[in-house]
Amino acid sequence: MVSRVIPVDPFDLVVFGATGDLAQRKILPALFRRYCAGQIPKGTRIIGAARTAYSTEGFHQALSENLTQVLAADSYDPEELAGFLQILSYIPIDGNGEAGWPELNRRLSGAAPDRVRVFYFSVGPGLFGPLAERLHSYGLTNGATRIVVEKPFGHDLASARALNRILASHFEEGQIYRIDHYLGKETVQNLMAVRFGNMLFEPLWNSQYVDHIQITVAETVGVAGREDYYDRSGAMRDMMQNHLMQLLCLIAMEPPAKFDPDAVRDEKLKVIRALDPVEPYHIVRGQYNAAPGRAGETCDGGEDLNYRETVQDQRSSTESYIALKAHISNWRWAGTPFYLRTGKRLKARSSVINVLFKDAPHSIFGEEAGRHANHLKIRLQPNEGITLSVTIKEPGPGGMRLMDVPLDMSFAEALGPKGVDPADAYERLIMDVVRGNQTLFMRGDEVEAAWAWTDPIIAGWQARGDVPKPYEGGSTGPGDADLLMRRDNREWRGINP
Ligand code: NAP
């Protein structure tokens, strides 16, 4: 089954930070893949911009070399690449100065006034304001201008508000696309399709039938290469406040009246606002040590050092792991705990949402049949897919013994022999920007509400002088996270590749 290409009109897209890691690894490869899929029409202009003094040819060469590393060999067609490079040019621009801006103006001139013009801010947040100001002062915006801003959106509520104010002084909310690439994943959207497109789940989707929900985002990589940023942020700001909160919102929100940006985002906002403050004893912070017997070995692109060695601060109390228990105070979810955890240098790279249903109220099969409960597992990565475990009779003679078996909807299997080639989250999200669809982007008030919930938690552990618990690299996290569950007579589902 081939994914459908929805045509768009020719557009202009400027990537600020085009020489940086994100642009080279994700944004430009995503655009190239959309070009190969036939979704980028003739006449489209893509411009890379950064301070590095490349000529367009020099930038093409660097990007071509990079694409051979980033893309699978069989998705790399030299002819397609030559075509893509024809619509891609480069301008050296200083976002904090005046160099390059008149040239950008010249290059974008001559287009119809309603032609979609996207400016992707793939730069540090300190440049968002200066870029927004210059886009205006150099007359680069039109009625169809959209800006895309990367995470982190602020460091706390005050800085997020300040950033929102700066952007709002130059752009309407409808022009601002705050990106969280988790929302571009196929399964995340499927989560909404499964919940709101089937009669089967929604009636059971509440505290009467759901025992608890677990959201896990586990990474095997450490913080090498991002030490400075990470040590100032930690898992709470880097992952929990945005990715995990967004997943929580999609799992917990009420059905929006329609699948439209503000209807969906209104419902997500209500979830964040209904979150209770988290009790300190419902939070476990951890910091990784080197995996046993492997200290100093190269692992996942970095030295397998412990966290403090990597950030070169033996007293760092930044968490590389966090687990917490959250409660949503509304009619649907009162009494159902949500356990969220995320960490670096864990056993496997795995992002999964587990919805654990309650036991049947009465077992007609007696004690010996054991306890069985339905379980919906939503895998975001790797192997995106959804599995529902159901209880059946164990085959064969010998009485009524029960067992749980998975009903598996692995996208690769369900959607054809080769499956749909699932577009990368960035491909989908960039094309959504071009189409003007904000459903999968965060609104300013959502981001602020998420910080309003996060800030007191961070302030609490800062006031207490909380020190993260050590955990071994390659493990499932600190033992205290298991205790958090065991105290409630529950346990984490495994972290498996
Ligand atoms: P990076 O590798 O440090 O790249 C930064 C880019 O900004 C470079 O192209 C740099 O190019 C350009 N730049 C810096 N100062 C500039 C200036 N004054 N004027 C114009 N361009 C300037 O950072 P990154 O990892 O790509 O991240 C970019 C943004 O995405 C950050 O906000 C980051 O938090 C966010 N993000 C990154 C990732 C990721 O996986 N990398 C994931 C999620 C979010 P020159 O030096 O040539 O100017």
Describe the 3D structure:
With 497 residues, this protein is α/β, with parallel strands linked by helices. It folds into two domains: 12-150, NAD(P)-binding Rossmann-like Domain (Rossmann fold); 183-421 and 469-486, 2-Layer Sandwich (Dihydrodipicolinate Reductase, domain 2). The chain is 34% helix and 20% strand. It has helices at 21-36, 56-70, 78-86, 101-108, 128-137, 157-168, 186-197, 227-252, 261-274, 307-311, 411-414, 425-435, 444-464, 479-486, and strands at 12-16, 45-50, 88-92, 117-121, 145-149, 176-178, 210-218, 283-289, 298-299, 302-303, 321-326, 338-343, 350-357, 375-381, 385-393, 402-410, 469-472. Strands 16-15-14-13-7-12-11-8-17 form a nine-stranded mixed beta sheet, sandwiched between helices. Strands 3-2-1-4-5-6 form a six-stranded parallel beta sheet. The protein has a two-stranded antiparallel sheet with strand order 9-10. α1 (21-36) crosses α2 (56-70). The longest helix has 26 residues, at 227-252. It is globular and about 80 Å long. It starts with 11 loop residues before the first strand and ends in an 11-residue tail after the last helix. The model has no long low-confidence stretch (mean pLDDT 91). It binds NADP nicotinamide-adenine-dinucleotide phosphate.
